[in-house]
Write a structure and sequence with these properties.
The chain has about 450 residues and is an alpha/beta fold. The protein has three domains: about 120 residues, Rossmann fold; about 230 residues, pyruvate-formate lyase- activating enzyme; about 70 residues, Beta Barrel (OB fold (Dihydrolipoamide Acetyltransferase, E2P)), CATH 2.40.50. It is about 35% helix and about 25% strand. The strands form six sheets. The chain has a six-stranded parallel β-sheet with strand order 2-1-3-4-5-6, with helices on both faces. α1 links the parallel β1 and β2. It binds S-adenosyl-L-homocysteine, iron/sulfur cluster (SF4) and FE3-S4 cluster. FE3-S4 cluster (F3S) binds next to α1 and α5.
Amino acid sequence: MSTKKFYIETYGCQMNFADSEIVNSILLEDGMVPAMEVESADVVLVNTCSIRENAETKVWNRLKELRKLKKSNEGLTVGVLGCMAERIKDRIIEQEHLVDIVVGPDAYRDIPRLLKEVDDGRKAVNVLLSLEETYADIAPVRTTGNGVTAFVSIMRGCDNMCSFCVVPFTRGRERSRPMESILKEIKQLSDDGYKEVTLLGQNVNSYKDGEHTFSKLMYEASQVDPEMRFRFSSPHPKDFPDDLLHIIAEQPNLCNYIHIPAQAGSDTMLERMRRPYTREQYLNLIDKMRSIIPGLSLSTDIIAGFCGETEEEHQGTMTLMKEVGYDLAYMFAYSERERTLAYRKFEDDVPEEIKKRRLTEIIQQQMDIQLQRNKAEIGKRHLVLVEGTSKRSDEQLQGRTDTNKMVVFDAWDFKPGQYVEVEITDCTSATLLARPIQLSSITEFYGAAVEA
Ligand code: SAH
Ligand code: SF4
Ligand code: F3S
């Protein structure tokens, strides 16, 4: 039998992208080889997302396209991985005849066996969730990235049960990966020339490996390589650790950027969302963050039009966003998900056009805020890690500041993976334009690390 070629397509969050790299590794280990494009693959795996209705619609449409490909290529195996697996396994396999295998986020080690079942003429499913699986011993194979920035999963699942969110049902119980295996992966990335790592979990504050907390993990990560930068996503506002703020302030390679999802700005809404903090507690946390980490930049996630949202609650979200002044925000219209508390207990009663209008207001205000905040950067110097050539011109490079702002500047002789000192000259609400000054490094630009 000839060697099988596989192709993985990934939808959804960074964690799904990180998972696809684990699946990559498992398939290569099994003797399969990557296909350059989907048309030449024997096995196409679609790593899916369930977070909102439109995320699932995108996947369904893609599966329909793949069904056409299946017609012209009878040997083609199509699989669904990830967050849609559990919820729609029956529909996928029995009714639609779209896919041959369905594999949930904790069952990726089983893919080679499931593929063999398909070879024997059976459909194959494994959507069991696990209390232990962290894939700690599997070294992800990064084939699609830029070779400069990488994601590292530090935990899986989520126990928070925010009332709107499907993730606890698709990804199961929260569990942490051993610190040693995380640090080993970071060291390997550093040896391979990577310069930036984002540590991933649905709620990184609750990371725990014996005595080791998330703050400890971040500190240890910062010590692996002083020229490697670190970010993390996402912490929860309810229990953000103080000591981490000091560690970020002290370690030059821990980025001065925090993604801290608010979701909403009124206490009544936060209560219905089962987000256990008040507006005041959230704002106090932001103040504390900014007082401990000067120059900190902040981003957030916001949901518009959640169950029962009044105009007053919507205004609460607007004023919270204005008061904080986020550098970046991910803003969504509420989309009802089966199995969640909101689905069972509340009504998705905000009419579609009102949801849309509120979301538009939120986005417009945020664009204005971002433009103002970016304008304030003009004339300032930043250290930018070059990620690659700019989308618009080969003669320009793009990369991000420590504060996670995208910067575009003339390429000169700079290469991806280098740190360049730049001066900001202009901006839009999404991008900073800059004049390069010189090649630099974290140690040169920020001075020597302060001992923690
Ligand atoms: N664990 C992360 C969030 C992961 S999901 C955290 O708590 O920060 C990313 C974002 O999607 C959430 O923060 C939320 O803003 C949004 N989201 C989740 N469920 C949603 C739903 N049902 N409708 C609309 N947006 C949703
Ligand atoms: Fe979903 Fe809340 Fe968990 Fe984030 S913390 S993944 S929003 S349940
Ligand atoms: Fe991520 Fe979507 Fe699953 S956001 S955790 S891939 S539901």
